[in-house]
Amino acid sequence: MNNNNYNNKNNTLNLAVMGIMGTGLLSALFGFVNAQSGDPTVIETTSHRFTQMAEGVYQVTGTGAVNVMSNALLVVGENDVLVVDSHVTPNAANALLNSIPAVTNKPVRYLVNSHYHFDHAHGNQVLPPDVEIIGHEYTRAKLNGELGNVLEESTHISFTEGVPGQIANLERQIAETSDAAQRATLQTQLGVAQAHLTSLREVIPTPPNITLETKMTLFQTVMQGSREIQLLHIGRGHTAGDVVVFLPQERMVFTGDLMLPGLSYMGDSFPQEWPATLEQLKSLDFDIILPGHGAPLQGKEKIDHFQAYLGDLWQKTEAMKARGLTAEETAAQIDMTNHADNYAQIRGPGADVRAIRRIYTLLDE
Protein backbone atom coordinates (compact mmCIF):
# COMPACT_ATOMS: atom_id res chain seq x y z
CA MET A 1 0.00 0.00 0.00
CA ASN A 2 1.37 3.39 -0.95
CA ASN A 3 1.47 5.64 2.12
CA ASN A 4 3.58 8.36 0.65
CA ASN A 5 1.47 10.40 -1.74
CA TYR A 6 1.68 14.15 -1.37
CA ASN A 7 -1.95 15.08 -0.84
CA ASN A 8 -2.05 18.83 -1.48
CA LYS A 9 -3.61 18.16 -4.88
CA ASN A 10 -5.36 14.88 -4.12
CA ASN A 11 -7.63 16.19 -1.39
CA THR A 12 -9.80 18.33 -3.60
CA LEU A 13 -12.51 18.70 -0.98
CA ASN A 14 -10.28 19.78 1.87
CA LEU A 15 -11.94 22.81 3.42
CA ALA A 16 -8.95 23.71 5.56
CA VAL A 17 -6.03 25.66 4.12
CA MET A 18 -3.69 22.93 2.88
CA GLY A 19 -0.67 22.77 5.14
CA ILE A 20 -0.96 26.40 6.20
CA MET A 21 0.03 27.23 9.75
CA GLY A 22 -2.15 29.41 11.91
CA THR A 23 -1.56 33.08 11.29
CA GLY A 24 -0.35 33.59 14.84
CA LEU A 25 2.37 31.01 14.33
CA LEU A 26 3.30 32.56 10.98
CA SER A 27 3.72 35.90 12.70
CA ALA A 28 5.86 34.36 15.40
CA LEU A 29 8.08 32.61 12.87
CA PHE A 30 8.55 35.42 10.39
CA GLY A 31 7.71 38.57 12.32
CA PHE A 32 4.86 39.79 10.14
CA VAL A 33 3.90 42.58 12.54
CA ASN A 34 3.59 46.19 11.51
CA ALA A 35 4.85 47.70 14.75
CA GLN A 36 4.44 51.29 13.57
CA SER A 37 0.82 51.23 12.44
CA GLY A 38 -0.50 48.24 14.34
CA ASP A 39 -2.39 47.26 11.18
CA PRO A 40 -3.38 43.60 10.88
CA THR A 41 -0.98 41.45 8.91
CA VAL A 42 -3.70 39.15 7.59
CA ILE A 43 -6.61 40.29 5.41
CA GLU A 44 -9.38 37.76 4.93
CA THR A 45 -12.31 37.64 2.54
CA THR A 46 -14.91 34.92 2.24
CA SER A 47 -12.70 32.90 -0.10
CA HIS A 48 -9.11 34.06 0.49
CA ARG A 49 -6.56 34.88 3.12
CA PHE A 50 -3.78 37.38 2.34
CA THR A 51 -0.81 37.09 4.70
CA GLN A 52 1.62 39.99 4.45
CA MET A 53 5.18 38.75 4.00
CA ALA A 54 6.77 42.14 3.30
CA GLU A 55 5.56 45.60 2.32
CA GLY A 56 3.21 45.01 -0.62
CA VAL A 57 3.91 41.25 -0.78
CA TYR A 58 1.21 38.75 0.25
CA GLN A 59 1.01 34.99 0.33
CA VAL A 60 -2.51 34.07 -0.82
CA THR A 61 -4.30 30.97 0.43
CA GLY A 62 -7.86 29.70 0.41
CA THR A 63 -10.24 29.82 3.35
CA GLY A 64 -12.13 26.73 2.18
CA ALA A 65 -15.25 28.52 0.97
CA VAL A 66 -14.01 27.96 -2.58
CA ASN A 67 -11.75 25.12 -3.66
CA VAL A 68 -8.59 26.91 -4.86
CA MET A 69 -6.15 23.95 -4.54
CA SER A 70 -2.98 26.08 -4.60
CA ASN A 71 -1.33 29.12 -3.12
CA ALA A 72 -0.93 32.35 -5.05
CA LEU A 73 1.24 35.43 -4.60
CA LEU A 74 0.18 39.07 -4.68
CA VAL A 75 2.79 41.79 -5.28
CA VAL A 76 1.35 45.30 -4.97
CA GLY A 77 3.05 48.36 -6.41
CA GLU A 78 2.12 52.03 -6.55
CA ASN A 79 0.32 51.67 -9.87
CA ASP A 80 -0.50 48.02 -10.40
CA VAL A 81 -0.47 44.45 -9.12
CA LEU A 82 1.33 41.27 -10.13
CA VAL A 83 -0.32 37.94 -9.31
CA VAL A 84 1.40 34.57 -9.44
CA ASP A 85 -0.85 31.61 -10.33
CA SER A 86 -4.56 31.60 -11.07
CA HIS A 87 -5.71 28.56 -9.06
CA VAL A 88 -7.58 25.52 -10.28
CA THR A 89 -10.77 26.73 -11.98
CA PRO A 90 -12.44 29.85 -13.38
CA ASN A 91 -14.55 29.94 -10.21
CA ALA A 92 -11.45 29.97 -7.98
CA ALA A 93 -9.74 32.63 -10.09
CA ASN A 94 -12.83 34.83 -10.06
CA ALA A 95 -12.96 34.53 -6.28
CA LEU A 96 -9.33 35.65 -6.14
CA LEU A 97 -9.93 38.63 -8.43
CA ASN A 98 -12.98 39.61 -6.40
CA SER A 99 -10.94 39.40 -3.18
CA ILE A 100 -7.97 41.52 -4.26
CA PRO A 101 -9.83 44.84 -3.72
CA ALA A 102 -9.84 44.01 -0.01
CA VAL A 103 -6.06 44.47 -0.17
CA THR A 104 -5.64 47.15 -2.85
CA ASN A 105 -7.60 49.12 -5.42
CA LYS A 106 -4.70 48.91 -7.89
CA PRO A 107 -5.45 46.97 -11.10
CA VAL A 108 -3.92 43.59 -11.87
CA ARG A 109 -1.39 44.12 -14.67
CA TYR A 110 0.47 40.81 -14.76
CA LEU A 111 -0.33 37.18 -14.03
CA VAL A 112 2.62 34.80 -13.87
CA ASN A 113 2.12 31.04 -14.26
CA SER A 114 4.66 29.11 -12.19
CA HIS A 115 3.92 26.09 -14.42
CA TYR A 116 1.15 24.63 -16.55
CA HIS A 117 -0.52 22.24 -14.10
CA PHE A 118 -4.27 22.59 -13.73
CA ASP A 119 -4.25 23.66 -10.08
CA HIS A 120 -2.03 26.66 -10.86
CA ALA A 121 -3.13 27.79 -14.33
CA HIS A 122 -6.72 26.78 -15.06
CA GLY A 123 -8.06 30.08 -13.86
CA ASN A 124 -6.22 31.96 -16.62
CA GLN A 125 -9.31 32.26 -18.81
CA VAL A 126 -11.09 34.75 -16.53
CA LEU A 127 -8.30 37.34 -16.45
CA PRO A 128 -9.34 40.64 -18.07
CA PRO A 129 -7.98 41.09 -21.62
CA ASP A 130 -5.62 43.88 -20.55
CA VAL A 131 -3.78 41.57 -18.11
CA GLU A 132 -0.54 40.17 -19.49
CA ILE A 133 -0.13 36.46 -18.70
CA ILE A 134 3.53 35.47 -18.43
CA GLY A 135 4.94 31.96 -18.39
CA HIS A 136 7.67 29.72 -19.72
CA GLU A 137 7.65 28.76 -23.39
CA TYR A 138 6.83 25.18 -22.38
CA THR A 139 3.85 26.33 -20.31
CA ARG A 140 2.46 28.14 -23.34
CA ALA A 141 3.00 25.08 -25.54
CA LYS A 142 1.15 22.88 -23.04
CA LEU A 143 -1.77 25.23 -22.50
CA ASN A 144 -2.32 26.14 -26.15
CA GLY A 145 -2.55 22.48 -27.16
CA GLU A 146 0.68 22.21 -29.15
CA LEU A 147 1.67 19.19 -27.06
CA GLY A 148 -1.80 17.67 -26.71
CA ASN A 149 -4.92 18.44 -24.71
CA VAL A 150 -3.95 18.96 -21.06
CA LEU A 151 -7.51 18.08 -20.00
CA GLU A 152 -6.96 14.57 -21.37
CA GLU A 153 -3.58 14.00 -19.72
CA SER A 154 -3.17 11.52 -16.89
CA THR A 155 -2.16 14.23 -14.41
CA HIS A 156 -5.38 16.17 -14.85
CA ILE A 157 -7.54 13.06 -14.93
CA SER A 158 -5.96 11.45 -11.86
CA PHE A 159 -6.62 14.50 -9.71
CA THR A 160 -10.15 15.30 -10.94
CA GLU A 161 -11.88 12.03 -11.81
CA GLY A 162 -12.70 11.31 -8.17
CA VAL A 163 -14.70 14.48 -7.54
CA PRO A 164 -18.12 13.03 -8.53
CA GLY A 165 -17.52 10.13 -6.15
CA GLN A 166 -16.62 12.53 -3.36
CA ILE A 167 -19.86 14.40 -3.98
CA ALA A 168 -21.83 11.15 -3.85
CA ASN A 169 -20.12 10.24 -0.58
CA LEU A 170 -21.03 13.60 0.95
CA GLU A 171 -24.64 13.17 -0.16
CA ARG A 172 -24.70 9.72 1.46
CA GLN A 173 -23.29 11.09 4.72
CA ILE A 174 -25.88 13.89 4.75
CA ALA A 175 -28.69 11.36 4.27
CA GLU A 176 -27.38 9.14 7.06
CA THR A 177 -26.57 11.68 9.76
CA SER A 178 -29.06 12.72 12.42
CA ASP A 179 -26.79 15.39 13.89
CA ALA A 180 -27.89 18.86 12.76
CA ALA A 181 -24.47 20.48 13.19
CA GLN A 182 -22.73 17.70 11.28
CA ARG A 183 -25.35 17.90 8.54
CA ALA A 184 -24.77 21.64 8.18
CA THR A 185 -21.02 21.11 7.89
CA LEU A 186 -21.48 18.38 5.30
CA GLN A 187 -23.90 20.51 3.30
CA THR A 188 -21.35 23.32 3.21
CA GLN A 189 -18.72 20.89 1.99
CA LEU A 190 -21.13 19.55 -0.60
CA GLY A 191 -21.81 23.03 -1.94
CA VAL A 192 -18.09 23.70 -2.30
CA ALA A 193 -17.56 20.37 -4.05
CA GLN A 194 -20.47 20.85 -6.44
CA ALA A 195 -19.30 24.35 -7.39
CA HIS A 196 -15.81 22.95 -7.92
CA LEU A 197 -17.05 20.19 -10.23
CA THR A 198 -19.18 22.63 -12.22
CA SER A 199 -16.21 24.93 -12.73
CA LEU A 200 -13.86 22.07 -13.62
CA ARG A 201 -16.18 21.38 -16.55
CA GLU A 202 -15.97 25.02 -17.65
CA VAL A 203 -12.18 25.16 -17.96
CA ILE A 204 -10.73 26.40 -21.24
CA PRO A 205 -6.93 26.06 -21.04
CA THR A 206 -5.56 29.54 -21.68
CA PRO A 207 -1.85 30.01 -22.41
CA PRO A 208 0.47 32.87 -21.47
CA ASN A 209 0.68 35.63 -24.08
CA ILE A 210 4.21 36.57 -23.01
CA THR A 211 6.87 33.88 -22.61
CA LEU A 212 10.39 33.55 -21.32
CA GLU A 213 13.09 30.98 -21.89
CA THR A 214 15.40 31.57 -18.92
CA LYS A 215 14.86 35.01 -17.37
CA MET A 216 12.65 38.06 -17.41
CA THR A 217 12.96 41.02 -15.05
CA LEU A 218 10.11 43.37 -14.22
CA PHE A 219 10.48 46.64 -12.32
CA GLN A 220 7.43 47.66 -10.33
CA THR A 221 7.06 51.23 -9.10
CA VAL A 222 6.82 51.37 -5.31
CA MET A 223 6.89 54.23 -2.82
CA GLN A 224 10.60 53.68 -2.20
CA GLY A 225 11.45 53.72 -5.90
CA SER A 226 11.44 50.44 -7.81
CA ARG A 227 10.88 46.80 -6.87
CA GLU A 228 12.80 44.22 -8.90
CA ILE A 229 10.84 41.07 -9.78
CA GLN A 230 12.87 38.32 -11.43
CA LEU A 231 11.06 35.54 -13.31
CA LEU A 232 13.51 32.67 -13.62
CA HIS A 233 13.56 29.27 -15.30
CA ILE A 234 16.50 27.66 -13.53
CA GLY A 235 16.14 24.17 -14.99
CA ARG A 236 13.73 21.28 -15.34
CA GLY A 237 12.24 19.80 -12.19
CA HIS A 238 8.55 19.53 -11.36
CA THR A 239 7.85 20.17 -15.06
CA ALA A 240 9.88 21.25 -18.08
CA GLY A 241 8.74 24.85 -17.66
CA ASP A 242 8.89 25.79 -13.98
CA VAL A 243 9.25 29.51 -13.26
CA VAL A 244 10.25 30.86 -9.85
CA VAL A 245 9.50 34.45 -8.88
CA PHE A 246 12.43 36.00 -7.01
CA LEU A 247 12.12 39.23 -5.06
CA PRO A 248 15.75 40.13 -4.29
CA GLN A 249 14.98 43.20 -2.18
CA GLU A 250 12.50 41.27 -0.04
CA ARG A 251 14.77 38.19 -0.04
CA MET A 252 11.86 35.91 -0.95
CA VAL A 253 11.19 33.44 -3.74
CA PHE A 254 7.88 31.92 -4.86
CA THR A 255 8.68 28.42 -6.11
CA GLY A 256 5.39 26.98 -7.32
CA ASP A 257 5.71 23.20 -6.97
CA LEU A 258 9.44 23.14 -7.64
CA MET A 259 10.00 23.26 -3.88
CA LEU A 260 7.35 22.45 -1.28
CA PRO A 261 7.27 21.67 2.44
CA GLY A 262 6.44 18.07 1.52
CA LEU A 263 7.05 15.79 -1.44
CA SER A 264 5.92 17.31 -4.70
CA TYR A 265 3.91 15.44 -7.31
CA MET A 266 6.34 13.89 -9.80
CA GLY A 267 4.16 12.56 -12.60
CA ASP A 268 5.49 15.07 -15.16
CA SER A 269 8.85 15.67 -13.55
CA PHE A 270 12.53 15.23 -14.29
CA PRO A 271 13.79 13.66 -11.04
CA GLN A 272 17.35 13.13 -12.28
CA GLU A 273 17.71 16.82 -13.22
CA TRP A 274 15.69 18.22 -10.33
CA PRO A 275 18.51 18.23 -7.73
CA ALA A 276 20.72 20.35 -10.01
CA THR A 277 17.82 22.75 -10.58
CA LEU A 278 17.39 23.02 -6.81
CA GLU A 279 21.10 23.78 -6.53
CA GLN A 280 20.47 26.76 -8.80
CA LEU A 281 17.61 27.75 -6.51
CA LYS A 282 19.96 27.68 -3.53
CA SER A 283 22.31 30.06 -5.32
CA LEU A 284 19.69 32.82 -5.08
CA ASP A 285 20.04 35.16 -2.11
CA PHE A 286 16.80 34.64 -0.19
CA ASP A 287 15.59 33.91 3.32
CA ILE A 288 12.02 32.71 2.71
CA ILE A 289 10.48 30.27 0.22
CA LEU A 290 6.82 30.83 -0.64
CA PRO A 291 5.68 27.46 -2.04
CA GLY A 292 2.81 26.63 -4.34
CA HIS A 293 1.23 24.54 -1.57
CA GLY A 294 1.67 24.72 2.16
CA ALA A 295 3.39 27.04 4.57
CA PRO A 296 6.41 29.28 3.94
CA LEU A 297 9.86 27.79 4.48
CA GLN A 298 12.65 29.69 6.14
CA GLY A 299 16.20 29.11 4.94
CA LYS A 300 17.51 26.44 2.58
CA GLU A 301 17.81 23.30 4.70
CA LYS A 302 14.63 21.78 3.29
CA ILE A 303 16.11 22.03 -0.19
CA ASP A 304 18.97 19.78 0.91
CA HIS A 305 16.45 17.24 2.20
CA PHE A 306 14.53 17.19 -1.08
CA GLN A 307 17.70 16.89 -3.16
CA ALA A 308 18.70 13.86 -1.10
CA TYR A 309 15.26 12.29 -1.50
CA LEU A 310 15.22 12.79 -5.26
CA GLY A 311 18.68 11.29 -5.73
CA ASP A 312 17.81 8.29 -3.58
CA LEU A 313 14.46 7.75 -5.30
CA TRP A 314 16.07 7.74 -8.72
CA GLN A 315 18.87 5.35 -7.75
CA LYS A 316 16.59 2.88 -5.97
CA THR A 317 14.01 2.94 -8.75
CA GLU A 318 16.68 2.41 -11.39
CA ALA A 319 18.06 -0.58 -9.47
CA MET A 320 14.64 -2.17 -8.98
CA LYS A 321 13.75 -1.69 -12.65
CA ALA A 322 17.03 -3.37 -13.59
CA ARG A 323 15.98 -6.36 -11.47
CA GLY A 324 12.86 -6.73 -13.61
CA LEU A 325 10.22 -5.25 -11.32
CA THR A 326 7.29 -3.43 -12.86
CA ALA A 327 6.63 0.20 -11.97
CA GLU A 328 3.69 -0.89 -9.84
CA GLU A 329 5.79 -3.44 -7.97
CA THR A 330 8.53 -0.89 -7.38
CA ALA A 331 6.03 1.69 -6.15
CA ALA A 332 4.68 -0.80 -3.61
CA GLN A 333 8.06 -2.07 -2.39
CA ILE A 334 10.55 0.78 -2.60
CA ASP A 335 11.87 1.74 0.82
CA MET A 336 12.30 5.48 1.33
CA THR A 337 11.86 5.35 5.10
CA ASN A 338 15.38 6.69 5.59
CA HIS A 339 13.82 10.06 4.67
CA ALA A 340 10.89 9.76 7.09
CA ASP A 341 12.40 12.22 9.58
CA ASN A 342 12.12 14.93 6.92
CA TYR A 343 8.77 13.92 5.41
CA ALA A 344 5.88 13.04 7.70
CA GLN A 345 3.95 11.44 4.85
CA ILE A 346 6.50 8.62 4.66
CA ARG A 347 5.09 6.05 7.06
CA GLY A 348 6.41 2.87 5.52
CA PRO A 349 7.63 1.36 2.24
CA GLY A 350 6.08 2.67 -0.94
CA ALA A 351 6.01 5.71 -3.19
CA ASP A 352 3.53 7.41 -5.51
CA VAL A 353 3.14 5.06 -8.46
CA ARG A 354 2.88 8.06 -10.79
CA ALA A 355 6.38 9.14 -9.77
CA ILE A 356 7.75 5.65 -10.34
CA ARG A 357 6.06 5.33 -13.72
CA ARG A 358 7.59 8.65 -14.72
CA ILE A 359 11.08 7.47 -13.77
CA TYR A 360 10.56 4.23 -15.69
CA THR A 361 9.53 6.26 -18.75
CA LEU A 362 12.63 8.45 -18.50
CA LEU A 363 14.88 5.43 -18.03
CA ASP A 364 13.46 3.92 -21.23
CA GLU A 365 14.17 7.03 -23.32
Characterise the protein shown here:
The chain is 33% helix and 19% strand. By secondary structure, the protein is an alpha/beta fold. The protein has a domain of 229 residues: Ribonuclease Z/Hydroxyacylglutathione hydrolase-like (Metallo-beta-lactamase, Chain A), CATH 3.60.15.
Offer a concise description of the structure:
With 365 residues, this protein is of the alpha/beta class.
Structural class based on helices, strands and sheet pairing: alpha/beta
Strand order of the largest sheet: 1-2-3-4-5-6-7-8
Number of helices in the DSSP assignment: 11
Class of the domain at 23-153 and 204-301, according to the CATH hierarchy? Alpha Beta
Quick tags:
alpha/beta, Metallo-beta-lactamase, Chain A, 8-stranded mixed beta sheet, 6-stranded mixed beta sheet, 14 strands, 19% strand, globular
What is the element layout, followed by pairings?
Blueprint: H1 23-30, E1 42-44, E2 48-54, E3 57-62, E4 72-76, E5 81-84, H2 90-99, E6 108-112, H3 118-121, E7 132-136, H4 137-143, H5 154-160, H6 163-176, H7 180-200, E8 210-212, E9 215-222, E10 225-232, E11 244-247, E12 252-256, H8 274-282, E13 288-291, E14 297-298, H9 301-322, H10 327-333, H11 353-364
Parallel strand pairs: 5-6, 6-7, 7-8, 12-13
Antiparallel strand pairs: 1-2, 2-3, 3-4, 4-5, 9-10, 10-11, 11-12, 13-14
Helix pairs in contact: 6-7, 8-9, 9-11, 10-11
